[in-house]
Design goal:
By secondary structure, the chain is α+β, with helices and mostly antiparallel strands. The chain is 24% helix and 39% strand. Strand 15 and strand 16 form a beta hairpin.
Length: 467
Amino acid sequence: MKTVKSILIATTLICASVVSTLSAQQEAQPAQKHEFKVAVGDSVMIKRECVEYLTGERPSVWVWDKVHTVYQLGTKRFPEGVLLWNIRSWICEECLINVNGNAKEAAAQAAEEQAEERAAFEEEKAKTKEAKEAARAAAEAAAIAAADSAFRAQEAERLAAEQAAKEAEEAARAQKAKEDSIASQQHFKHSYDRFTIGLRGGASSLLHQAEKGNWTCGGDVVLDLQYAHYWAKDGRPVDLGIIVGLGIGYQQSGLKTAYDSTAFQRPDPYVATDNINYSVIAKDVKETDHQLQLEIPVMFSLIHDKGLFFNVGPKLMIPLYTPYKQTVNQDETHISAYFEKTGITVRDNPVTGRYDGQQPEEKNGIQFNMNLMVTAELGYEWVLKSGNSLGLGAYANYGWNLSYKNQTNSEGLFNLTAPSATDKAHLEVLSATHAYADKLSFFDAGVKIAYHFNFPKKPTRFKASKL
């Protein structure tokens, strides 16, 4: 009994092993349900109408005109597929032409079929291209027609807009003419006041006049604060006004001269009481005069509607602070003492007198002498959108015989004190402007920029130029 049982168990195990082996062998072998017309190793060509492999990819162009070798027939994934050797892709058997190795007839037939298929493909391709070209040409023609239509529509709209703008402009011009006519009847152009802040600068000089001397030009800069009233009348293109104000500024001028006390046609101021006659010669004297000045103008003013303006009138100038700086060349300055009793002349002797290089002090004298000048301004102004004005122009001032010039016809540039028993001779250098120059006249000219605050605001339409 036990023997039979053991035999049954062994038989069962053997059968199970055999079944397992057969199943594994069946899984390893590809499915062979489909009957193929080609065999492994056959030579085949791919038909032109084959547009994709079984995997979905599109064949390259070169595969259609080449002979391929069958590598495998069918698999679980593609039971009816054929795997070609040199492209390693699965393809449907119906897409293949069996040329059976190197058989000439089969190869010729396959080549003929391929040629027919290629010709049909090229013909279809040419038709497709021709259709695409026709469609593109039609689209271009349609686009050109649409663009032309759009352009014509835009041109019509532009012409209509221009016509409307022209009509609106004509209507506005007519309305403006009507308003101007009404404003003219109502005296719309009114009088106004203005406050001005101006800054001017340029060249200036005291115009020194001295024997053997020439003045040199300097510069000035002045801040102007002015008030004006203008009388304006409709129909009159020029506004008439009066300007008053206050200006404060700085100017400088210079003088180059040579001094010779023996050349004066007057008693020599250096004659000593002990019969010693002194004379001083200085060949190189330079002086620079500075001046802080206050100006009070009263000017008559004209302003044209086109923007031109002209101001002219007297101006009172008060020098507030007038320092000077002078240099005397020591090597070119000499003092001579003539002894009448002996007829001897001594030059640059420490006892009788010698210039030792001392310079005059920078005297900062404050003078309140008033000087009258004539002033004029000419330029152009723009009326801003705010109703205020911006002006740019040129100016000039001239004054003559200034009252602060000292009467020094009997004075020289040097003041020499004769030596005494206890003191040596002493030479004092004076200011050329205050002691030596015969005449002084003030002159300056330059450019002025000004900003005008108008009250009430000036109407900009009465100005031809606007900023």
